[in-house]
Amino acid sequence: MGIIERRAREKEQLRQQILVAARELFVNEGYENVSMRKIANKIEYSPTTIYLYFKDKADLLDSVCKETLLNLLNTLEQLKKDNSDPVETLRKSGRAYVEFGLKYPQDYKLTFVTRPQFQKGLGLDEGSVGEKVFDYLRAMVSECIQQKKLRLADVETTGQVMWSAVHGITLLLIDFPDFPWTEKDKLIDTVIHTTIKGLKA
Questions:
Q1: Which residues, in sequence order, are CB contacts of 29 under 8 Å at separation 6+?
Q2: Mean residue pLDDT across the chain
Q3: Model confidence over 93-109: pLDDT tens digits?
Q4: Is the domain defined by 61-199 classed in CATH 1.10.3720.10?
């Protein structure tokens, strides 16, 4: 490995180290209570070093959330390989979405609860990873509509109905773990099945 490649790898490793530290502090102490200096202290670097990689704390939060969305997108993309039954793919996608949120609850909340509070939006700018995640959902819904599997012809409304259902159950299960929920898998499957059934032709 040459000097240029080694330096590039070391820079990426430090960038990831900063992101890991920021994510941990945002989760444990709250975004508003974390400073760039506190993140720098955690990784034993000067704040100046962090500013070489990230513009400010908001940029750091955005980067943490982008990583989460990219992981979610990669998870969902695996389901598109077999799209012989678009309704079944939509169901599996909904299930995969909820499972992802429950597997990474703090990352999920940083992305869908914390960031919107401080950055006024879900990070759906054109070309963003967030937009690609929603484009995935739009594509699944559009395929169902084209094959006349769903009765609503409005892709945006149908997609938002589906997302509202899976996001709602994900956040409820994360936020209220002590609520006397029915059997979790049954609850998740029933929410998704009932939503899709209501949208079917």
A1: 38
A2: 90
A3: 999 999 999 999 999 99
A4: no
